[in-house]
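Record format v2
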Amino acid sequence: MNPTRQRRLILVVLILAAVAVAVGLTVFALSRNMNYLFTPSQVEAGKAHEYRTFRLGGMVKAGSIRHDAHSLMVHFTVVDAGGAMPVDYDGILPDLFRANQAVIATGHMDGSHFVATQVLAKHDATYMPQELKDAMAKAHAGKHIAGSAAMEKTP
Amino acid sequence: MTPELGQLALILALLLALAQGILPLIGAWRGSRALMAVARPAAAGQAVFVALSFLILVWAFLHFDFSVRYVAENSNLELPWYYRIAATWGAHEGSLLLWILILNLWTVALAIFGRNLPEAFAARVLGVMGLISVGFLSFTLFTSDPFARLLPSPMNGADLNPVLQDPGMTFHPPMLYMGYVGFSVAFAFAIAALLGGSMEPSWVRQARPWTNAAWGFLSCGIVAGSWWAYSELGWGGWWFWDPVENASFMPWLVGTALIHAQAITEKRGSLRAWTILLSIFAFSLSLLGTFLVRSGLLTSVHAFASDPRRGLYILCYLAVVVGGSLLLYALRAPKVMGGKPFAVVSRETAMLIGNLMFTVAAAMVMLGTLFPLIGDALHMGRISVGPPYFGLLFPLLMTPVVLLLPLGPYLRWGKGGSGLLKGVLLRCGIAAVACALVAAFFVHGRPRAIMGVAAAVWVAAGVVLYVIRRWREMPRGRRYPAEMAGMLLAHFGVAVFLIGVLLSESLSVTRDVRMSPGDVQTIGGYQFRFDGIKQTLGPNWHAEQATVVVSRDGKPFTVMHPQKRTYPHDQVQTESAVDPGITRDLYVALGEPMDAGNVHGAWGLRVYYKPFVRWIWGGGLFMMLGGFVAAFDRRFRYRRATATEPAADTTPAAAPREAGA
């Protein structure tokens, strides 16, 4: 093998190795940080079972928001047409968080409660996250159903 | 009546853009000087009409013309005049119009300053700019008309999204767009070179100031956006790896690679095909960025209303631009390739490694940003990719860049081996280790902070050593040409940025607390006392304003007033209070009353102590400055004798293939 070819071969091997490392790392990082979105009824159906961390999307049930007396801890219930999920969150809620509005919480299940580490609210009067709209449309639920009909189902 | 004039102006602009986009290209192909000569007047005329229609929209905002739907949706009688002007680009339609206006400004500047380009090449460049403009003008006219009427007109309008009512917002989008659109110049140069079948280093020299300026604007826009997120979103964060931030970051990464690749191509004639490819990527990502933000394609804080027709148009437009230019590249790139070989240890290699890292980083960011779309298309469910993905991979990719950065200027073009290198490595290394050891005592042994200091000193030492070396070795007046000064400024900015990021990330004290009036929190050696809430009024909002008295060692230090504003239509917006400083920021934001009925009781507050956070934006501003300074190098204005020869190279085959650098 002449020196030029040898150099090229080394270069190609190095590039391939770098690509392999990069792909491996990317796949690893992606698989560790993918968060799925589920609605309360999907969680109740056991769909979120296999994921430790996931995102819970739905409407904040009217009258369900309770602040702890001595800490920042807040409890509320997220509902969709077919289900309800109590959420615990220790922190400050976003500006646009209020009853009967769409919300997406990231966190994990602790027994029958969802413990949120981050809560996002919709960002203006006409906006609803598209993915949340789709997820809730599956259970053919509009805003109204989510707010009222589901309320009766909750414990 | 006036809004219709605006629309008419847009239609005329579209016709002129068609003329500018088609005739000069035909002219350059057929060798017809008359057709080529259409480019400049058409560009000027188009710019006049676009500017006219933009001004008409501003006028409609200033005069509360709520019969225009866009005005009614994004402003109201209470909105102060400066935010009414900013509202012009506050939503989808107007921001597209701003994009087009800026594209026209760049085109006109190019038509004026590009007079020493060969005639056919200039005609092609302006033609490509015209075609880009056709795409955007027709998108505006057919799917997002800013002048559409709303009849009967309402008495009062809705509101500009309160998140956008901030001084940072007034110049964040224009700066960002200046950057995005600026890359269209490099793109047009690349396409023109491919069409003509040849690429002279002297043309790349002409493209460089534009790319550098565009990159400077983009840096400025990103810094403004980051600053705005920090002060306005109320979380005290400066970067969230949000899809919209990524949308502006991808062109920046590729743009960074591009300005370095252009330097190699101009100086050495090598890597021409790579430079062309990067030009195409940088602009394609700018387009993707524009559309990602405005189309509502991705779920994000910024995304505006979506409309399937728009989405379809955007997909087609992107397919034509990206697919078309890549096809052209595949067909023509072999014709424009060429250059000189270089050794393994040379400046080219160092810059190429950096280039590779930036490109891979952009690809990585793109994968993470678009992954939810891919997952959706493959029916994998609703997925989002969390920030730790980016937080893990990005620093890994940038480590080689930071390591190579101080060495670049010491390496020679083409040739291998440099005796200077060892000395530089040794000095930078010693400086970095020494400073890291000293810093270790101050930062309580936090590894990230120590690494930050070491990396920053490593980079800064390299820059400073080079500055000293030039000072000693070069005669007066030739020490720091603008191009080099720009490079040194931008590289120094990297050092400042590294300090800011790594120190503020590892040393920040962030506490969300519940405070009743009179409560005191001690954070970072400062005592914060919450003194309750008062009501205040602004031009178009009312607010609960807290008084937080900050003291240090028992002595009063400052008083901070974070607010919770309520805009019309019950839109609530946090206005955090920041006490800025070179070594630390104090940051207080109001959360919510713990008892919704009693605003005078306990509140949730975010009280943050953020050391060196300002250096992040400082570093970004240094980079921006570097881009602008480099763009003003006199070398770029140098008129080459060969470049003024008329129509000598209208036939591709006649163009010199291997013009030396």
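Confidence is low (pLDDT under 50) at residues 139-155 of chain A.
Chain A touches chain B at residues 7, 22, 25-26, 29-30, 32-38, 55, 67, 70-72, 91-93, 95-96, 123-127, 129-131, 134-135 (CB under 8 Å).
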